[in-house]
Structure prediction request, 362 residues.
Amino acid sequence: MKLGNPRSLDWSLYILPIILVLIGCATIFSTTIGTNRFYLTYNQLIFLGLGVVLMVVFTLYDYRNLVGISRIIYLTSVLLLALVLVLGKEKLGATRWINLGFFQLQPSEISKAGLMIIASALLALRAGSWARTIGWLLVLTIIPLGFIIYQPDLGTAIITTLIVMSLFFSSSISRKAKFIFLLAIVAALPLGWMTLRDYQKDRLQTFINPESDPRGSGYNVIQSMIAVGSGGLYGRGLGNGPQSQLNFLPVSHTDFIFAGWSEATGFVGSTVLVVLEMLLAYRVYKIVRVAKDGFGRFLAIGFGTMLLSQSAINIGMNIGLAPVTGIPLPFVSYGGTSLSICFILTGIMQSIYLRYRRSAIA
Prediction:
């Protein structure tokens, strides 16, 4: 298949992600100057090149074919989650990665896309009664969630839940069923609290008052807020941030990359980054209105929710408005698996838009 007329593409879906990745690369470069982590910038640029290729490939691929292979994609993602238990590499107190030698694979990122695709297919096809559909949706969600929580990865578990909820509540199911589903989620919250590790509970409790444990669970948030505040209006410039350069700012290339960017570029740069993330989410949600089928609409809803919720939570935890849960900032935070999945999903959005444009022209 060929792209055809370039005007049939939504070029913002290509341009915005690339700009965001370059912002991430600039921040990683800024926060790793003079350290032994300088190679992270080169790695991220390689991930960018791979991501762009994947995005174009999935633009050319007819997204409707994903319905037929949704079960294979889902089962593969669950199998990879199970392999983490056997082959997983522990890092920062969690076992979430499989060491492939040349690459650290994070299956929980793949599982978000896998669940999104099969849930979208399930809700679009609606084979059988709504009770049966809801039952299958719960089963399909609980299985990967169980593996993700066990790792533990609270952030990905939250995002996964939000994606499924957005798909469910966007469906044409009755309000009564939606209300019952919501009650079930609320009722399960105490059980979710019981499954959390002690350090995760400390993070949630410290979120209310970081100063209660400034050298322990509150340290990351306090240092992040200092970095954001020290940027002022225009920032200190790339490579000149004391919080980053003196290693006060933790994991500045992943969870707290927004703080590193804010320290370097100030309020102006932070605002630009937030606007870019929100604009990308808006362009994805626009696909919901133009998609010609339920599967395409659900995919756009799921990816839009993923972008919006991850951006809001990541930025929120950088400025003390959300608990620290280890959620990457889409297209900005370092990570090959996360970046590749985001580019693949962006390519699928472009595939949906491209086919809408062609049908409209025809």
